[in-house]
From TrEMBL:
<keyword id="KW-0963">Cytoplasm</keyword>
<comment type="similarity">
    <text>Belongs to the methyltransferase superfamily. L-isoaspartyl/D-aspartyl protein methyltransferase family.</text>
</comment>
<protein>
    <recommendedName>
        <fullName>Protein-L-isoaspartate O-methyltransferase</fullName>
        <ecNumber>2.1.1.77</ecNumber>
    </recommendedName>
</protein>
<dbReference type="InterPro" id="IPR029063">
    <property type="entry name" value="SAM-dependent_MTases_sf"/>
</dbReference>
<keyword id="KW-0808">Transferase</keyword>
<dbReference type="InterPro" id="IPR000682">
    <property type="entry name" value="PCMT"/>
</dbReference>
<keyword id="KW-0949">S-adenosyl-L-methionine</keyword>
<dbReference type="Pfam" id="PF01135">
    <property type="entry name" value="PCMT"/>
</dbReference>
<keyword id="KW-0489">Methyltransferase</keyword>
Length: 160
């Protein structure tokens, strides 16, 4: 697949995920709906690991169809081979973000950046100057660094 067709596929799968979350009743507000529709989760999950009883299989852009289907499925994704980091199930993220119910101008401190996807959703909704994300581990934050310069990436991501 070409990069353009991968991006088209990712956009289609994002729209499909939004539809599933809306029909499931977990994404009722326009602000969060727009964030999930516009922030590309695959930028923050360049690789995930499929667990089998006997092995861990890395799934990434070398198998774009399988990778994008996994990234935009409503499922937990293990993102480190030592199984210490994951990207939360999108429907659970939607429930938590809806429950947060921030107003325009609110500032958010996120503890535990992880892949950076949740921070990006927060930035999309509130503006990158209103979100600070902190993580103890350096590795997962690299996804945020790769995506830096985009409007939906926190301008402040600290690692300790």
């Amino acid at each position: 697949m070409s990069a353009a067709s991968d991006e088209d596929r990712a956009e289609k799968l994002r729209r499909q995920l939004v539809g599933e979350l809306v029909s499931g009743g977990v994404l009722p507000s326009d602000g969060w709906r727009a964030a999930v529709a516009e922030v590309p989760r695959h930028v923050f999950v360049p690789t995930f690991y499929r667990q089998t009883p006997s092995e861990q299989e890395a799934v990434d852009a070398s198998s774009p169809g399988e990778w994008l289907e996994g990234v935009y499925g409503d499922q937990l994704l293990v993102v480190s081979p030592d199984v210490k980091s994951s990207s939360t199930v999108p429907s659970l993220m939607a429930v938590m973000l809806e429950a947060l119910d921030p107003a325009d101008g609110h500032r958010i401190l996120e503890i535990g950046t992880g892949t950076g996807y949740n921070a990006a959703l927060l930035c999309h909704r509130l503006g990158d100057g209103n979100v600070v994300s902190v993580d103890i581990a350096g590795g997962p934050c690299r996804c945020c660094e790769r995506a830096s310069g985009r409007a939906w990436v926190p301008s402040s991501t600290w690692r300790g």
